[in-house]
Amino acid sequence: xxxxxxxxNVLRAQRIELPSWAFGNSGTxxxxxxxxxxxRDPFEKVADAAQVHAFTGVAPTVALHIPWDExxxxxxxxxxxxxxxxxxxxxxxxxxxxDDYKLGSVTNPDPAVRRKAxxxxxxxxxxxxxxxxxxxxxxxxxGTNYPGQDDIRARQDRLAEALEAVYARLSADQRLILEYKxxxxxxxxxxxxxxxxxxxxxxRLGERAQVCVDTGHHAPGTNIEFIVAFLLREGKLGAFDFNxxxxxxxxxxxxxxxxxxLFRILFEVKQAGGLAADSGIAFMLDQCHNIEPKIPxxxxxxxxxxEATAKALLVDTEAxxxxxxxxxxxxxxxxLMDAFNTDVRPLLAxxxxxxxxxxxxxxxxxRSGYAERIVADRVGGNQAGWGA
Amino acid sequence: xxxxxxxxNVLRAQRIELPSWAFGNSGTxxxxxxxxxxxRDPFEKVADAAQVHAFTGVAPTVALHIPWDExxxxxxxxxxxxxxxxxxxxxxxxxxxxDDYKLGSVTNPDPAVRRKAxxxxxxxxxxxxxxxxxxxxxxxxxGTNYPGQDDIRARQDRLAEALEAVYARLSADQRLILEYKxxxxxxxxxxxxxxxxxxxxxxRLGERAQVCVDTGHHAPGTNIEFIVAFLLREGKLGAFDFNxxxxxxxxxxxxxxxxxxLFRILFEVKQAGGLAADSGIAFMLDQCHNIEPKIPxxxxxxxxxxEATAKALLVDTEAxxxxxxxxxxxxxxxxLMDAFNTDVRPLLAxxxxxxxxxxxxxxxxxRSGYAERIVADRVGGNQAGWGA
Amino acid sequence: xxxxxxxxNVLRAQRIELPSWAFGNSGTxxxxxxxxxxxRDPFEKVADAAQVHAFTGVAPTVALHIPWDExxxxxxxxxxxxxxxxxxxxxxxxxxxxDDYKLGSVTNPDPAVRRKAxxxxxxxxxxxxxxxxxxxxxxxxxGTNYPGQDDIRARQDRLAEALEAVYARLSADQRLILEYKxxxxxxxxxxxxxxxxxxxxxxRLGERAQVCVDTGHHAPGTNIEFIVAFLLREGKLGAFDFNxxxxxxxxxxxxxxxxxxLFRILFEVKQAGGLAADSGIAFMLDQCHNIEPKIPxxxxxxxxxxEATAKALLVDTEAxxxxxxxxxxxxxxxxLMDAFNTDVRPLLAxxxxxxxxxxxxxxxxxRSGYAERIVADRVGGNQAGWGA
Amino acid sequence: xxxxxxxxNVLRAQRIELPSWAFGNSGTxxxxxxxxxxxRDPFEKVADAAQVHAFTGVAPTVALHIPWDExxxxxxxxxxxxxxxxxxxxxxxxxxxxDDYKLGSVTNPDPAVRRKAxxxxxxxxxxxxxxxxxxxxxxxxxGTNYPGQDDIRARQDRLAEALEAVYARLSADQRLILEYKxxxxxxxxxxxxxxxxxxxxxxRLGERAQVCVDTGHHAPGTNIEFIVAFLLREGKLGAFDFNxxxxxxxxxxxxxxxxxxLFRILFEVKQAGGLAADSGIAFMLDQCHNIEPKIPxxxxxxxxxxEATAKALLVDTEAxxxxxxxxxxxxxxxxLMDAFNTDVRPLLAxxxxxxxxxxxxxxxxxRSGYAERIVADRVGGNQAGWGA
Lengths: 388, 388, 388, 388
Fold this sequence. Notes:
InterPro entries (chains A, B, C, D): L-rhamnose_isomerase (IPR050337), Rhamnose_iso-rel (IPR013457), Xyl_isomerase-like_sf (IPR036237)
Strand order of the largest sheet of chain A: 1-2-3-4-6-8-9-10
Largest sheet of chain A: 8 strands, parallel
Number of domains of chain A: 1
CATH topology of chain A: TIM Barrel
Organism (chains A, B, C, D): Actinacidiphila reveromycinica
GO molecular function (chains A, B, C, D): L-rhamnose isomerase activity; metal ion binding
CATH superfamily of chain A: Divalent-metal-dependent TIM barrel enzymes
Keywords (chains A, B, C, D): Isomerase, Manganese, Metal-binding
Oligomer: homotetramer
CATH architecture of chain A: Alpha-Beta Barrel
GO biological process, one term (chains A, B, C, D): rhamnose catabolic process
Structural class of chain A: alpha/beta
């Protein structure tokens, strides 16, 4: 078992980014269930995100989704965040919710629509300039629903052209993060369906183009930790979108469906030095709390990442390497499982107390009265949600 | 090759039911793209459905979704249908779009919500009494998102109780059709996830409880024609919801993703006598035309079912049985493929001409001017869609 | 957290059956890697199985595979088992390794082959009569590779006929356990592909026909604990074949791929009273240790089942029910996760010491010298393996 | 519909490579069913392959598997092939059937095993030098079965080292073709699991390193034609291994499971110029005829590829492009489907007659008496199979 203190030092410095949209209403195509107290604007989303940080101490940034989080004055939004103890993070570009995008955004067969989409991506960079964000996260819903609907290769050409234009517009300390997704909302082809496609485009673009691994965006049976290890070896893993899935892109709480997988992923990150503060990897949540309350859902998610990280840190890598080198299959597996089977909750409770936090963030938040306050205060107005 | 004339006789008598909701707007959780000319009420949906029948001749009924298709006067709706040359068909109960149903409808842990859901199911039977519908189709979105969220077995008890109450309420010439679905919108458990669950409940209920096979509701790799053959052998296949999928429940045009699979399914139906007019199997479309126009999408779907049926009818079953009995793997497979590889479009064109229809329904509809008419006429009001 | 002592009492009485074939060589179609010291006959397999029981204390029976484990004198085999501290258990019928079975066994289109297969099943019952085994486990490799190859429904008829004949031959205290499997070795249809098919046949046969759930035999995304809960509710879960999988039927060590899933399965078993000594559920391992040593592989497997069971027993079901009834999604999930996140290894070590065993079975076996002994002793002869 | 004559010209020049191992016995881990008349050495395999070419006219090369097809005198084997009307093609390296490779070949933790594997790869190049083969096809069974068993990243380092050494050894007109596979025989990680991994390695190696797409080696839901289109755009598609699958790597006859998918793949190939004689793409079959006779199985496979190619060639690409540019979803899909729904068997029969062949290769082979001859002649000796 590796050192508890060393583990705590890494855990203390860990940073998990929250998505602003996790605090708004979300749902499936069948129904979005509204929840009481949900934010009505980006300022209220920031306030809620700050609560998650207040109780966990490791979630000091909140990612924006543009245009969902468009405001007149980003300086004011940044100050509101700072006042609440957090900062604004990654900018996520949304080019999928305008009627023009029915057949795609940057890969649309219509050049006018492509131009419109590109202009929006440029506008996102303008937001970054104002918020001081490092990362532009690009996820495209682009794709087709029917064989023959469009030319697969021509769409790649259009995609490459748009990515080059965006990359050229970024400043030297900004990055382009390209996300991939197997399917949904497109049901036949997706223009960036897998890590290989994202990787190939990023390679062409240059060093500041990096791949984002959303843990819910793979085909059944895909070994995600292999992809993580491979991208880290290539220096091309820029970000995670954490969530969990049983079937498709379920966007459930990270670690809820397969905590062992989350542990294996974080172990590969750790092995490659990805937990170092300067690793350049953005660890973000990307979830939908369709039926559970939003803020506790995010707190629980942060805790799940912490627990998996703690276990990854406790792996006795010396014993592991020795068993691996010896071809001792059961022994090597046993070393890994020893760490996974360890109950790390006491260690994390201890860490929180050292950080001046309550050892039980869920209970502390529940006791805080914040939930009741927002239900009482946020009456009237339009609740934020996917699409607003 | 089996007889063309015999095939045409079956094809002439074939009946495919249309879903009223296919004519309204639909989409994914990311975006519903509005289309011009979409119906604004059930009467306009019925009018659109009648167009599909007018050009194909084999789609004379339209299924309703309650409450989406609630009207004050079902007599009037039925007369409107009759005037347009069709009739009202299956009633689909919707107990998933009220805020109360966040944790389930008939399996909700809260007895008050269960009671409300059951009352709605009873109300659907009242609608059936007025429309003269034979079938009550039940699909429940009920399930859970997280392990532990609710008691799997207790939910089965609640489900059984509700089904019994509904079954008891049906008249002797009405049927309960229970649909299953692997997942979505629930992401951990679904209360009726597979055919086995539906089958077991129907068996308990009695003869007029039957299983509905939605071709998009299975796990990857599931052999759907096996299920179809098995249920037919048990006398428990009540209905199809036809559509196609590449990934999850994509609800694409039937036959668009895997026309060979559709052929295999219809071949099993045919072998078991399921194409006979009195087979009791309801062949329905259940699709979402998210990006393509609705009426042509439905026409194309009907044609795809017809083509797969025609191929199934052309299988030389005598040669097939002989090869099967002889253990001639390649020979038996070859007999099946011969039928699949046959171009049946000329045969269907001929049939349509014999029926007094245009041999090319897609072109005939396009020429008819109906599309332009509804775009011009249906201005203002709220377009129908999932949820309305 | 439920009582530790109560948990220990259940764990002390737990019984896990070992498969004789896990001790022989196994592999994939690409290669079977031979291991030193592997048994050369059923007596040596029994001796190895006894080692697993000696170090774990909860694996006192070994299942046989006929004809792999055919011996002249089953009395002698039983006595050898008894001398080693274990007994003979379930009889598994093998009707898939004779050239005659190329197109199936009991569902073969050739009646002579069907007769031969049935005779073998009868012979298996004769073995049961001699060994005193309660359960006849039937897994059929029967199926087809190509569409059209055989008649899906006719094969069901043949299957039903064979099952009836076998069931009729069983004595009143013997059971028929019907296993299902999605695919492999058949690649298009499998004659018993899913739990529904097995369930429907068992229902027809009678009370002593029960379903076997092999945890590796499902389509991707299948919720196994739902099936377990459902079959338990119906009184039709007869046995488990435990193993784990990442992709297909990988037959890896149970709990190695997804320990959380194993825990969820055992929690459903426990909730339904399935851990009671008289539940009638046979908990069996069915694994292939292709690259790891066999005996430690089995010990580890037994321990994994014990750990998952211990966690299932520690779930605070009162708190769980309260949270479920209140619709507290995160709370209910949290109760379940609390148990899963608990490190139960100390509890199991304690239990072993109370049972007079070494608290660390893996280390104790390694120290015992048995592995070295069999390598030295078992030289010459033919190693047992799949097919022998 | 594009021109029939133009299509015939492409079809006349099409070349499909046969795998020598398709003529030997094969099976699953459960059983290899022996067939009468199966070859006993590489010369007999070559003779059988020549039969497939004799009746189809488009399969003039046979790929070798080393060491399965090792002979003393490759000149003699080449002459035997030439006498039979064909030539020797791709060399497939086999580093998975020696006991030393239990934990991997070129990625084995043991440097001595890695050295042995590399030496075998060099020996394969020696064979290529003697046979005049252009392509060295590398598929590695390397991977792990259990989390922690070995270091994912270290294995990539070892893989890269081996690939570099092999690539350096190739002559300027030889190519390295790197195949990927999701899983099997390794069940947790595979060292080259997907096209992205193969692509990244090939990119590093250089121009003569190319990716092989085996149509059976993907996760469920993977869009293979997207990968094909993408690799063609990157100039990195070197070869196909054609076969078909319903579940895992079933290695069934190409086009047997999803003929529409095969058509879509070949359409992408055609669109990118991949059907041109100088495209550099090797179109190979890689199948196992476990239950059907081998030679007719191969003939049927060749015909299936021809039929899919013919349909791909008949797509009216002008109409398709117009519909795509207009955003006409149904129209564009309709153009593609028109070609797929066309019965191309008459066109291929016509082509065969023009080539001096029987229009019905299956029937002509059956009449030829070859099957009866080899059954009579090939008595005694050891039948070839996987592993020999």
